[in-house]
Write a structure and sequence with these properties.
alpha/beta, Molybdenum Cofactor Biosythetic Enzyme, Chain A, Alpha-Beta Plaits, Maf protein, 3 domains, 6-stranded mixed beta sheet, 5-stranded mixed beta sheet, 16 helices, 17 strands, elongated, MoaB/Mog-like_dom_sf, CinA-like protein, CinA-like_C
């Protein structure tokens, strides 16, 4: 296994003023060529701190990637610190100097002394061209480790990595082939899922590993295979997925980058159906999950945000008697909402939500997290009562996911009611 460490340099990252997207992207790209990231670190603009983290990294990693701190200003310390760390003199690199000169010439600007110093590099460094900016990259083979220093600006760093660094890294190291496959499930918690498939998990072949990647309402099962041939690993992983599928089929909604709302949208299109939505507690969030998908106009008719009882009555036909006797958070109300929006917008099916998202508004009979959802279709109305927990945003999100999954299972004819 080739071990990589990624170090980002800059006070702005530690202050939270800039989101560090570089480390995630680099990790993903390294994974594609069989290199495992074992540590990610961020350090501020202090030379002693940078030196300390470099000293640590050389004992952990086979290759270290460094981003940031290569600009022309006094707070950009990376080049000087690397020169000190490797006990190297500094000098102008001829090609780096020419590239910086051409960069400014093409933009009709003169090369200042400050920008000229961008080409001042440690003598021990091998030059990595930055075609998108003026901060040169550097490649060192020192102290038994490969060191790659690149610009911190994401689009500059990515261009350097894709065009120059990754091909060179792949040539330098003989790495195993790694293949990932992600199976996405909804409607079951991580611990219940683990119990359900534990016998299958324990019987996985040694070159295939399983990881649980849970998020709010959704669990991703990531199978990772190691070997010498990608095609064979892919076949091995698919065989294991086929083996576990009878256990989890009812919960699987997609693979890799599939989104639940996108999957449901494709099912609606396949059945020439369309959808209307009536939302109370979700306040438009459910509609948003549908309409953020390109092409959703093919199956989304529209919706009504009936937050106030007056809107429930006037726009959806919910009777005042239902609201007085049963309340807005009730099965009777949610049935009327789902039927009302389906009839009003003349859709094939409809979804409706009404609940108490909190943090206030609950009672002994209807505590915070009490939610009713409904699906209306030509044959009637299907309802579900949910008792959710968490913050207001979490309850709203989980309500929407339950609606999406209810519709998914209905379209697949997997509902018992």
């Amino acid at each position: 296994m080739v071990r990589a460490e990624i170090i980002t340099i800059g006070d702005e990252i530690l202050y939270g003023q800039i989101l560090d997207t570089n480390t995630q992207w680099i990790s993903l790209e390294l994974d594609k060529i069989g290199i495992k990231t074992i540590r990610k670190s961020s350090v501020g603009d202090q030379d002693t701190e940078i030196l300390a983290i470099l000293e640590e990294a050389q004992h952990r990693a086979d290759i270290v990637f460094i981003t940031g701190g290569l600009g022309p200003t006094k707070d950009d310390l990376t080049k000087n610190v690397l020169a000190k760390f490797f006990d190297s003199d500094m000098d102008y690199h001829p090609q780096a100097l020419e590239d910086v000169r051409v960069f400014f010439e093409k933009r009709g600007r003169e090369l200042s002394d400050l920008n000229r110093d961008q080409a001042l590099l440690p003598v021990k460094a091998q030059y990595i061209q930055n075609k998108q900016g003026t901060a040169p990259g550097m490649w060192f083979e020192e102290k038994g480790t490969i060191w790659v220093s690149m610009a911190g600006v994401p689009f500059e760093m990515k261009a350097m990595m894709e065009e120059l660094v990754l091909p060179r890294v792949a040539q330098h190291f003989k790495t195993p082939t790694i293949v990932h496959k992600i199976v996405k499930v909804v409607g079951i918690g991580e611990s219940y899922l683990s119990d359900m498939i534990q016998d299958w998990e324990l019987s996985l072949p040694s070159h295939i590993k399983l990881a649980y990647l849970p998020s709010l309402g959704i669990v991703k099962l990531r199978l990772t295979g190691f070997g010498s041939e990608a095609k064979q690993i892919q076949q091995d992983i698919q065989r294991e997925i086929d083996r576990v599928m009878p256990l989890i089929k009812g919960y699987v909604f997609g693979y890799e980058q599939d989104e639940l709302s996108e999957v449901v949208g494709k099912l609606l299109i396949a059945q020439s159906a369309n959808l209307a939505v009536a939302e109370s507690c979700t306040g438009g969030y459910l509609s948003h999950l549908f309409t953020e998908i390109p092409g959703s106009s093919a199956y989304i008719v529209g919706g009504v945000i009936s937050y106030a009882n007056e809107v429930k009555m006037e726009s959806l036909g919910v009777s005042s008697q239902i609201l007085e006797q049963d309340g807005a958070v009730s099965e009777a109300c949610i049935v009327a909402m789902a039927q009302g929006v389906r009839e009003k917008l003349k859709s094939s099916v409809s979804l409706a939500t009404s609940g108490i998202a909190g943090p206030d508004g609950g009672s002994e009979d209807k505590p915070v997290g009490t939610v009713w959802i409904a699906l209306a279709h030509s044959g009637g109305v299907i309802t579900r009562k949910l008792q959710l927990a968490g913050t207001r945003k979490q309850i709203i999100h989980m309500t929407a996911l339950n609606c999406l999954n209810l519709l998914r299972k209905f379209l697949l004819n997997e509902l018992t009611q």
